[in-house]
Amino acid sequence: MTVTDTAAARARLLEIIKEKAIVHGRVTLSSGKEADYYVDLRRISLDGEAAPLVGLVMRELTKDLTYAAVGGLTLGADPVATSMLHAAAAAGERLDAFVVRKAGKAHGLQQRIEGPSIKGRRVLVVEDTTTTGASPLAAVEAAREDGAEVVAVATIADRATGAGEKITAEAGVEYRYAFSLEELGLA
Known about the structure:
alpha/beta; six-stranded mixed β-sheet; two-stranded antiparallel ribbon; 8 strands; globular
């Protein structure tokens, strides 16, 4: 598979997600809601074969947007942003990544956002999977407080629980996802 073969990358990533990331059984999500399955995308975004595919697929998903940095609330967003940074570098392009802490540091520079400055820059907020939209919304708010212009929110998998509509309504930005519940075989 070549770096430019995004259709093959997307198909292989979906295959790996179905094989390694979908766990069936009753679970309590971070939102407090219960579900009959769990999509553990850290098994994918931190996997040596899948992580590069994540970067390719997420860049393809957002290729019509203009942004200079990508990031979101730690921990779900971190490997997604890093994969995108590496995919951009492999394509000969520059993309910075940033990490939004859940709370500001009480020591050092006391920053809530780590990485290259995003002040005055167009940024994309990312997440691995989205249920309530709370994590991306927190990241959007932090990025705006830091002086960035958020162009959109993008996630690998959408749980079809209204998060996209909530993000669009509350943050006023477009919401995109690479894979739907139907594609993951969960709907």
